[in-house]
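hiii, so i know i said id send this last week but things got crazy w the move. better late than never?? heres the sequnce for the chain we talked about at the cafe, plus the structure i predicted for it. fair warning i was half asleep when i ran it
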Amino acid sequence: MIRAIARSLALVLLVASAARAEVTVAAKLSTATAYAGEPVSLTIAVNGSRAPEEPIMPPVAGLTIRALGGQDVSRSSTTIINGRVFEDRFDGYLFQYELAGLAPGEVTIPALDVRVDGRVYQTQPQTLRVLAPQKDQDVVLRLEADRASVYAGEPVMLRVTLGLGKSVNAARFTLPGVEGVFEVATTGQSAPRRGEVSFSLLDREVPTTRGVVTVDGVEYTAYTAELALIPRRAGSFVIGPATAACEVMVAERRTIFDRDVTRRAVVPSNPVRIEVRPLPTEGRPPNFNGLVGRYLISTEASESEVSVGDPIRLSITVRGPLPGSVPAPDLERQPALAGDFRVGAEQPKGIIEPGRVRFDRELRAQHDRVTEIPPIELPYFNVETGRFEVARSDAIPLRVRPTRTVTTADGFGAVGEAPAPSGVLESNSEGIAHNFTGPDALHDQRFSLARSVLSPVGVATVVAPPALYAGLGVIALVRRSSQSGSDRRRRSRALVTARGALSQPSDAPAAAVSRALRLYAGLRTGRNPDGLTAQECADAFAPAGESLQSRARELLARCDASEYGGASSSSGGGGGGGGGVIDERSIDEASRLLGEIDRVLTGRKP
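okay and structure toks below
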């Protein structure tokens, strides 16, 4: 008997050990060599578990690191070489990161700890060799600020211009020197429209204008984007050199069986120095909130006649430079409102309109002696005069009716003071009540554990906690199952949705193909398709294998080349030396490619 138990225990330990041994963790860089500022993908693959804990990525000197999230992946492939069968299976989880080197040299990503089912696994350290960006005859990058000297808090416009001598795919930019010093302001300009060229700068899509630029006697097709930067402290600061990484078209494919020939280029820009002067302290208003420039303020009330305590919506409109960066006026610090109005505690979000921003606040009059909503003050620093000034809105006439105070007398249904209780004692006509004596008048009040447990209160005390925990467990299980089912349904309809987008009539095949690939990648990963770049979209196809990922990346590059080359999708020619890299046949090609990727990711048979 003891031997049988020992053998069973050994078998259980062996199976558990084998199960743990199936879990493997590995880290891999998309490339071991990259230019400074060029994005590089880092993938941490956990094979054998779909619920690992996310590793803690420490700061690494010389690198910028951005987490891209993760996804569970299941795939298998079989390869036959010289009659030998090689099978590759992966059933686990992938963590994705984007890295970029800041300066030339070698940078080492240390070993990372990944916890799986209470056990810690370690990756191998990864080394990235960072090269210095080089000037290129086909691509130039320029930075230009509209002012070299500003006050702290005064907006400065930074123009980023990419000049192209040949077609390129979507460029990736780095802009050092901004983070921690400047705030990127909202300019109120419209988001890029479909088909328009935009730059991804500082994690936001910025629309561009197209023109021509001449550098060292060479004419380039230029795309220019503008960023509004607000310095938050005084000092001398340098922005850049920025970098732009892209694939330059060398030769276009001649048949559908060929591939475009491209080369990688990472070019630097010129640096821009900006002197930031501190604001003076003399004459600074006590309610100054950091606005620098010249501003106007106006107000409008929803009501002109109210009772004491009734809500009034006060719309405050501010006009000035960069209205999207204007904070809401602090009404609690308005001396004219103190004592007469109670201000709502909500923190409003500005509604940005062309050239202005509107804030809606709630006021309540506190007494009937109020005759107007007083002017609202907006202090600012005028850079033209070099002094602090205050913009004021016009007063708004207001009639306030008094309200009647409810007293305790209203509780008795009469007007006046509440009746006082009578102090006269009344006689009891029934006489003195009879006293009962004897054993029958006694009640057993001794404590009994059995009686307490069987009482309604005892039963509720014993049964309620387990029932509550069981109910919470059922709710959590239902929610988890619902979320899991929702994720599965979203991934299962990815192919149908993407092919549906391809089937829509379109005059721009390049935009249609690019949109379909991003739709599929977004639905598979749970991310917003409109926010995916070409590289992030290609990274989402990595679980399908290197061959399919390479085909998807090449197709995305051709789509971006069509847009950046300035040519139509189905005809040659265009600005920047681009040509027709996408035509109607590419839609069928994209549909077949998505079908192959979906079969690998879902495990469905063709």
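btw The domain at 296-401 is CATH 2.60.40 (Immunoglobulin-like). thought thatd interest u
miss u guys!!
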